[in-house]
Target: DUF2922 domain-containing protein
Amino acid sequence: MKTLELKFVNNDGKIVTYSIEKPIEPVNPAAINAVMDEIITQNAFTSSGGDLVSKKSAHLVEHNVEEIEL
Model:
């Protein structure tokens, strides 16, 4: 399964990560950048360390699970 991880910096200077499962692919970097800007502008989310104040990064992560017979 793939997830899109959006990483922000909060008021305390700590990294806050929001994960979106099954993102639309191929991902659009310009759209992701715009959405992250809008999340900060609208103060859409907060964290235990305060409001989100800047973007840190975005990652497309793929998790592979392999069943192990016991």
Q: What stands out?
A: DSSP finds one helix and four strands in the chain. The first strand starts at residue 2 and ends at 10. The chain has one domain: 2-62.
